[in-house]
Amino acid sequence: MYSLKSYVLVVSLIFIPFFANNFLVFVNSITSSSGNQYTTFFNAISSSTNPKASLNSGKNQTTSSLISSSFCDVWDVTCSEEVLGLAQEPDNVEWIKGLRRKIHENPELAFEEYETSKLVRSELDRMDIEYRYPLAKTGIRAWVGTGGPPFVAIRADMDALPIQEAVEWEHKSKVAGKMHACGHDAHVAMLVGAAKILKNREHLLKGTVIVIFQPAEEAGNGAKRMIGDGALENVEAIFAVHVSHEHPTGIIGSRPGPLLAGCGFFRAVFSGRKGLAGSPHHSVDPILAASAAVISLQGIVSRESNPLDSQVVSVTSFNGGNNLDMIPETVVIGGTFRAFSNASFYNLLQRIEEVIVEQANVFRCWATVDFFEKESTIYPPTVNDNRMYEHVKKVATDLLGPPNFRVVPPMMGAEDFSFYSQVVPAAFYYIGVRNETLGSTHTGHSPYFMIDEDVLPIGAAVHATIAERYLNEQG
């Protein structure tokens, strides 16, 4: 028989952890509403009761000392506030800005992102986050959570552009002719920041977050190669963000269905028979054939496409040489085509080739058409899954407030995130970086492109919340 003292001991062991955890939730609610006056006390208690949650353990020397306290079994405003609070801690803000600036100073083009990848892996090592490397030459697939299902992915692109930076500031590109002129440096920093938050809250994750750092979005279809190397293994949904100068800093924008167009390029060579311009009947004129093809190409959209299904075919190059007294043997034309659905996109590709070849035949010439498929320049449309879009909208609204989410119109730009969206349900969204005071108003691919760095912790928080809450709501 057990003594009375033994019963007391057993009951104490059972109930003390329960009361301790609830006391921590109470303390956290005080710190959330009353500022930081209890932070030191709170950290001391939480570090001793839940050491696994601390990001300062082991090799990680850059992480926050604040530990998540709520259980978030059912997501509520406290959960969102905790994630945003972690992201906006002063030490974290300075760290994420410093990370982005290092990447900005050392831009690397598609499939050359070795130093960027090395920097990311260094930060992951400090946080004791496991990863696979390399995928698609310089890419990384990291993971945080239980290691089991469900699996959700968040992605950032790493490559820069062959542009000479014209912005004069302390952290200007140090590499001549290369610049992060599309915000991928910010994308990487925000995703590393999200990984840091998720590692902090790993004990709360009800599954696994796959964190994807991808090369070559601008050229080379890095996403396609990442998928081929296993980046989406076990993944059931994926999300990504792109900075936007069209929206004020921190505003989230997206839409259901088609968001970005599919994009392709073509180059056609018309071949005829060379001859003197004064005796055209002795030649077979490829200039006439190419000219007729240019006119006929415009009829594909204007006469064959549904006016409510936006499509574009544009001829942007025409080269028949520079001899004014000679009909050339060949003429080369080229251009681009865009559409918002896969069916329309690939129909355009087929009709462009048919029109060019047949028009060449009409004028006794022959033609070949190259769509650069071997060079991976074809990008399908980026189409948001309705349910994934609603998830982004819900997260952004709850995290940042309803005024900070906008439904945006589709754009004719293209993104290789589209390859992911063809494999698993996906949602792509924008985060605003526009700040007239700072001069952050220029479009991507401009030598004057810059961002408002205040967006970085916000983007990290949105990334992390999208992933954690997705797992929370799948359980």
Write a brief structural summary.
With 475 residues, this protein is of the alpha/beta class.
Explain this structure to me?
With 475 residues, the chain is α/β, with parallel strands linked by helices. It folds into 3 domains: 4-74, no CATH class; 85-260 and 387-474, Zn peptidases (Aminopeptidase, 3-Layer(aba) Sandwich); 264-375, Alpha-Beta Plaits (2-Layer Sandwich), CATH 3.30.70.360. It has 12 helices and 16 strands. The chain has helices at 4-34, 39-49, 77-87, 90-105, 114-126, 184-200, 222-228, 286-304, 342-362, 386-400, 418-421, 455-474, and strands spanning 130-135, 139-145, 151-157, 208-214, 238-248, 252-254, 257-260, 262-271, 275-276, 311-319, 326-327, 330-339, 366-370, 382-384, 405-407, 426-434. The protein has an 8-stranded mixed sheet, sandwiched between helices. Mean pLDDT is 89; it is low at 7-11 and 13-66.
How many beta-strand segments?
16
Task: Average the pLDDT over all residues and give the rounded result.
Answer: 89
Output the CATH topology of the largest domain: Aminopeptidase
Rg result: 27 Å
Full CATH superfamily name of the largest domain: Zn peptidases
Global geometry: elongated
Q: How many strands, which pairing sense, and closed or not: the largest β-sheet?
A: 8 strands, mixed
Low-confidence stretches at least 5 residues in length (pLDDT < 50)?
A: 7-11, 13-66
Instruction: Note the gap between the termini.
Output: 43 Å
Domains (count): 3
Assigned CATH architecture of the largest domain = 3-Layer(aba) Sandwich
Structural class: alpha/beta
The CATH class designation of the largest domain is Alpha Beta
- Count of DSSP helices? 12
Q: What is the ordering of alpha helices and beta strands?
A: HHHHHEEEHEHEEEEEHEEEHEEHEHEH
* Residues in helix, %: 25-40%
Q: What is the strand arrangement across the widest sheet?
A: 1-2-4-3-5-16-6-15
Content of β-strand? 15-25%
